[in-house]
Amino acid sequence: MTVASTITIHALAPEHRARLMELARDTSFAEGARIFEEGQHADRFWIVRTGTVSLDMRVPGRRSPVVETLGHNELIGWSWLFEPFVWQLGAEALSPVRAHEFDAEAVRALCRSDPPLEAAVSQWVGRVLAHRLQTARNRLLDLYAPYGSGAWA
């Protein structure tokens, strides 16, 4: 399994993906729309159907750098799963975006009622979180450290 496949919605087994998708509602964002802001309450999340989304973070005294770009089948937002349910990054549509939107409380309730689903969703979001942390670290080092991230080729 590649890194990409462990962080898209396809990381979930088909039966878990189907249960989760029962709660999806279609939505869209215009190019340039802010999807959420760092520090705001995280009460939903999205899976990209089409388009691209940038994730950015506040850096005091500087313009917010883009730390990752997301596309088809990728999760927008993980802060909805972990208290205090506050966005740790910001997100903006880089192009017109169509996405599946999920109400966080409804998904958490579904997960509580189905422990195998809860475990699968938690592991999936945990892998996404670990990937985003590493990506953000490398991006910030590339931008602000004297010799860049030193990431392996």
Explain briefly what this protein structure is.
The protein has helices at about 5, 15-20, 105-115, 115-145, and strands at about 25-30, 35, 45-50, 55, 65-70, 75, 90-95, 95-105. The protein has about 150 residues and is an alpha+beta fold. Helix 3 crosses helix 4.
List key phrases describing it.
single chain; alpha+beta; RmlC-like_jellyroll; Jelly Rolls; cNMP-bd_dom_sf; 4-stranded antiparallel β-sheet; 24% strand; Cyclic nucleotide-binding domain-containing protein; 153 residues; cNMP-bd_dom
Q: Which shape, going by the Cα principal axes? A: globular
Q: What's the story with the biggest beta sheet?
A: 4 strands, antiparallel
- If you average the pLDDT, what whole number results? 88
Portion in beta strands? 15-25%
Question: Which CATH architecture?
Answer: Sandwich
Relevant CATH superfamily:
Jelly Rolls
N-to-C series of helices and strands: HHEEEEEEEEHH
Total strands: 8
Low-confidence stretches: none
InterPro entries: cNMP-bd_dom, cNMP-bd_dom_sf, RmlC-like_jellyroll
Domain Cyclic nucleotide-binding: 8-77
Protein name: Cyclic nucleotide-binding domain-containing protein
Pfam families: cNMP_binding (PF00027)
